[in-house]
């Protein structure tokens, strides 16, 4: 070999060992994981930490302020019901925010879809599955429309969805009529909110969830280790499993306690909204993390030009995220309608969208695109719901609720922007 | 064997351009360009700002359609009408701006748009193995982890990843547009070593640079563009640095370069 060839790379990156990939060989342990996390933080990604801190701090705060009512099983079930529509709407927004786009119409789209379902149930006497399907199809079609305007025509999503925010409200108003409400009394749909998974089944599902999660994590660790791939240390994998197991067991235990207000009746079990949210969480996490579609969503959000040159159909991805967003808005609308027992012209208006965007951002999804996970919607949605729920228990007036939630959103957005600025400043 | 020495160019060039013309509207950017790129060799493509280097490689990549001229790949005439077709032939371009997604890790970037799958599942295991394999083959030793986010890499490391990405695809021709432009001394060294290694592993390499030291260090051939015309396409041993600079700035040097009449025509 010539001198050019065999010359060892004369200049090492700072900290680089001559053989390379030292972090991938599994020799480093917890320290490496901590370092990797700090690296991510410097890169602008704070992970789930702020949202988890928010949940803990707010939980403690309201527990201290309302020890009798806040941490009771009944209020926890109520909190789950309250959080579910916010979380589901926020899950859809995560996809849209990942591209650095926004959907200001997501809230009112949930209203339109719920109105379609309610009208079919009440006026046409359609069975629940037809009505639900119609609501979801409405969501898909609306998403295709919004996505085409953004992705194909090229109008900024802010403008498109601001226009549609007004437009769809008019549509719902026309459908339901001024001052009217359409009741939603179908037993299957109402069950999402007011029925619970039988306690025994709830435990079976909880243990199954833990077992499957643990099996997947351990198997991945085993494969990665065996084939010499980059992997987290076993301790981290075990802690992850432990935390998930503890949360699942705790939630199931609390919600399995009888929370009936009167003696003689029994009200216990996990509200159906929870397995629904968990199911969506698993499904969408799979889509984002394990399929090439999800990979392309991140790529387009991170660098659309790079994605285009890599042969990714950027327009198709743009349209697809809006379809996903509106479809989840439809599901959110159905869950909200089940909870309230009716759909009104204002359904999905007001602070619905603000709560959902807030949830995603508080959870750690960036408004600048490229960074976010489905679980952000769950964690952030819980923070938002705890604020609404706790303030409700305190009996504060509505104005305070608005101001505080707005403040929290602003705080989360500032953290996001500062993290991004820091990342840019450190050359990351 | 790999030092930039004069080698007989008797083999078939990986890429041969014959009489390529390209205009943007009324402005003709490439005039009757001829060029040969051989396997196992680094061909430096030099020329002043605006000479048409980027336009030429974008034509090779299928991003710009050429107006006329012949395009031979491994001796066979081909038409490349898009990046996908270029990639299918085995042509990989590393652009000046690299085009990496900062929010994805090294493996994810290397396989972007061409992910390996197991059914609908991404096959992370095989992608990570292949990425590490390619990086090791290129003797890249500066990456801490192939699962590092690209946002945490230095300029030289990014360039390395972009080049490794091009090599991953059984590419035959790798085109590098100013890979050392924004790098410091140490990182330039790494990238030049990598460019040399690419050729030594059998790739035909086109290397665009404004830095004559770099050009003379790694190249086997030199192709000089002057106002869209190929002033010379010769083995590097046939020219010295002052000559190349003359070719770049005046279009001719001694008996090399475009004919005086033609050069005069270009000046006006
Ligand atoms: N899309 C385009 N439309 C019109 N003119 C163009 C286009 N792309 C390039 N040109 C023109 O073609 C000429 C050659 O540009 P090109 O980018 O190929 O130069 P270059 O040799 O790569 O220069 P540099 O060293 O600055 O990168 C320039 O005069 C430029 O203005
Ligand atoms: Mg250029």
Automatic annotation (TrEMBL), chain A:
Keyword Transmembrane helix annotated: yes
Xref: Pfam families: BPD_transp_2
UniProt KW Membrane keyword: yes
Residue segments, region Disordered: 1-27
Transmembrane regions listed in the UniProt entry: 46-65, 86-108, 128-151, 158-177, 197-216, 237-257, 263-288, 319-340, 352-370, 377-394, 400-419
GO cellular component terms, A-Z: plasma membrane
Keywords in alphabetical order: Cell inner membrane, Cell membrane, Membrane, Sugar transport, Transmembrane, Transmembrane helix, Transport
Polar residues: bias regions: 1-12
UniProt xrefs under InterPro entries: ABC_transp_permease
GO molecular function: transmembrane transporter activity
CDD domains according to UniProt: TM_PBP1_transp_AraH_like
Topology versus the membrane: Multi-pass membrane protein
Subcellular compartments: Cell membrane
Function noted in UniProt: Part of the binding-protein-dependent transport system for D-xylose. Probably responsible for the translocation of the substrate across the membrane.
Protein name, UniProt field: Xylose transport system permease protein XylH
Lineage of origin: Bacteria, Bacillati, Actinomycetota, Actinomycetes, Geodermatophilales
From TrEMBL, chain B:
GO molecular function: ATP binding; ATP hydrolysis activity
All copies of domain ABC transporter, residue ranges: 15-252
Domain of life: Bacteria
Keyword flag NADP: no
Xref: InterPro entries: AAA+_ATPase (IPR003593), ABC_carbohydrate_import_ATPase (IPR050107), ABC_transporter-like_ATP-bd (IPR003439), P-loop_NTPase (IPR027417)
Coiled-coil ranges per UniProt: none
Keywords for this protein: ATP-binding, Nucleotide-binding
Protein name: Monosaccharide ABC transporter ATP-binding protein (CUT2 family)
């Amino acid at each position: 070999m010539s001198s050019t060839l065999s010359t060892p790379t004369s200049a090492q990156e700072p900290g680089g060992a001559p053989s390379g990939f030292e972090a991938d060989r599994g020799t480093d342990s917890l320290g490496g994981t901590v370092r990797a996390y700090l690296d991510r933080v410097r890169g602008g990604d704070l992970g789930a930490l702020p949202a988890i801190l928010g949940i803990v701090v707010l939980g403690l705060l309201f527990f201290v302020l309302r020890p009798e009512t806040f941490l009771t099983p009944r209020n926890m079930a109520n909190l789950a019901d309250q959080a579910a529509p916010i979380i589901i709407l926020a899950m859809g927004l995560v996809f849209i925010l990942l591209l650095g786009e926004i959907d200001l119409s997501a809230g009112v789209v949930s209203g339109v879809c719920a109105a379609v379902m309610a009208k079919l149930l009440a006026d046409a006497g359609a069975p629940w599955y037809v009505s639900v399907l119609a609501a979801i199809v409405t969501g898909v079609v609306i998403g295709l429309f919004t996505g085409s305007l953004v992705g194909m025509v090229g109008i900024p999503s802010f403008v498109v969805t601001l226009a549609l925010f007004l437009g769809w409200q008019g549509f719902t108003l026309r459908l339901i009529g001024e001052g009217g409400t359409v009741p939603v009394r179908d037993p299957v749909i109402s069950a999402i909110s007011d029925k619970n998974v039988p306690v025994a089944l709830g435990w079976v599902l909880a243990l199954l969830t833990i077992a499957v999660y643990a099996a997947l994590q351990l198997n991945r660790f085993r494969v990665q280790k065996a084939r010499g791939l980059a992997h987290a240390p076993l301790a981290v994998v075990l802690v992850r499993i432990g935390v998930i197991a503890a949360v699942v067991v705790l939630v199931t235990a609390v919600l399995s306690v009888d929370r009936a207000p009167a003696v003689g009746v029994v009200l216990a079990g996990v509200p159906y909204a929870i397995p629904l949210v968990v199911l969506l969480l698993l499904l969408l996490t799979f889509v984002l993390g394990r399929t090439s579609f999800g990979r392309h969503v991140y790529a387009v959000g991170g660098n659309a030009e790079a994605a285009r040159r890599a042969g990714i159909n950027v327009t198709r991805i743009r349209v697809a995220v809006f379809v996903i967003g509106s479809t989840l808005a439809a599901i959110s609308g159905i869950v909200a309608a089940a909870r309230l027992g009716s759909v009104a012209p204002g359904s999905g208006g007001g602070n619905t969208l603000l709560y959902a965007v807030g949830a995603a951002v508080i959870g750690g999804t960036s408004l600048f695109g490229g960074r976010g996970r489905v679980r952000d919607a769950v964690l952030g949605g819980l923070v938002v719901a705890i604020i609404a729920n706790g303030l409700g228990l305190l009996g504060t007036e509505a104005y305070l609720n608005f101001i505080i939630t707005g403040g929290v959103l602003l705080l989360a957005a500032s953290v996001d922007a500062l993290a991004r600025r820091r990342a840019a400043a450190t050359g990351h | 064997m790999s030092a930039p020495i004069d080698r007989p160019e008797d083999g078939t060039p990986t890429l041969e351009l014959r009489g390529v013309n390209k205009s943007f509207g009324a402005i003709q950017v490439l005039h009757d360009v001829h060029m040969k790129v051989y396997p196992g060799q680094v061909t430096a493509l030099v020329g002043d700002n605006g000479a048409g280097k980027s336009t030429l490689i974008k034509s090779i990549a299928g991003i710009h359609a050429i107006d006329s001229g012949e395009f031979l790949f491994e001796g066979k005439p081909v038409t490349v009408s898009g990046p996908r077709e270029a990639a299918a032939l085995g042509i990989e371009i590393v652009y000046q701006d690299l085009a990496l997604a900062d929010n994805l890790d090294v493996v994810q970037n290397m396989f972007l748009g061409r992910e390996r799958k197991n059914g609908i599942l991404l096959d992370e295991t095989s992608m990570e193995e292949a990425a590490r394999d390619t990086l090791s083959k290129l003797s890249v030793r500066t990456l801490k982890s192939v699962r590092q986010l690209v946002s945490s890499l230095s300029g030289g490391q990014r360039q390395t990843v972009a080049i490794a990405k091009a090599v991953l695809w059984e590419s035959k021709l790798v085109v590098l547009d100013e890979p050392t432009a924004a790098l410091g001394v140490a990182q330039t060294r790494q990238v030049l070593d990598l460019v040399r290694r690419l050729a030594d592993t059998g790739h035909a390499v086109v290397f665009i640079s404004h830095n004559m030291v770099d050009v003379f260090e790694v190249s086997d051939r030199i192709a000089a563009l002057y106002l869209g015309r190929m002033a010379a396409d010769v083995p590097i041993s046939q020219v010295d640095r002052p000559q190349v600079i003359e070719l770049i700035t005046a279009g001719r040097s001694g008996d090399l370069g475009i004919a005086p009449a033609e050069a005069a025509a270009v000046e006006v």
